[in-house]
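Can anyone check this?
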Amino acid sequence: MIKEPYVAIERSIIKQFRKEIWRPFVKGLQAYEMIADGDRIAVCISGGKDSMLLAKCMQELKRHSKTNFELEFIVMDPGYNPANRRLIEENAALMNIPVQIFESDIFDAVVDVDQSPCYLCARMRRGYLYDRARSLGCNKIALGHHYDDVIETILMSMLYGGQVNTMMPKLHSTNFPGMELIRPLYFVKEGDILAWKDYNGLHFLQCACRFTEQIARDMEARGAAKDSADVVHTSKRQEIKELIKTLKKTNPFVEANIMKSVENVNLDACIGYVSGGRRHHFLDEYDKR
């Protein structure tokens, strides 16, 4: 009997990629207590490799977990061109993910923004996703950020923001009381996600916003590679990716050490820090010790 393609895709997660994907996925869930009995979780799908893998992992988890929780799979169409939307729908059908697609006008809202359109787009997306999830009775949304996103954010925060911050594994929403965000792929590395994608012969969306598409057209007109648009619009993150890659040549543990750096913060060895919205300075308590 010929099995549906999604069966092989599901099997690859818990068999061929058990060590690289399934175990780190479960480790993150357990380490940061992301899911509890009674949760109703909206898995947010952009159409890219990360969120599509997340959807399959969450389906597998529900199938095997003793924790009682429910899932919704939501896709926000912020104004995709027809080909990109069709690719999302086709991949969802191929992978047996019952997506619910809803529309927004985010692309129209940010297309003429000169500074940080990607940041504004991401912020607006989050709000739309929280709102839709809440309307479906969900108390959590799950996003597809992975290990590489986390360590890159740590370095970007230091080198470009002058602060020590990380992408948290879970957090309470400030604008949607009672809602929470979780990142189940927190310990899953991007290279392993790419390997899983290639193993299954899958093809997903890259960034499909109008800003990226316009850059691609401009670069194509100049004879540049089409896919280099992804590098341009995320140039700072790409710089950090390349920096980490270079550092790994002399220190194979650099990625793990970056991650550990925000787990082992010694406040007694910090000039200053912010907690609960209040700024603290080491001199505040210096002569009291």
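Reply from J.R.: I decoded it. The first strand starts at residue 40 and ends at 45.
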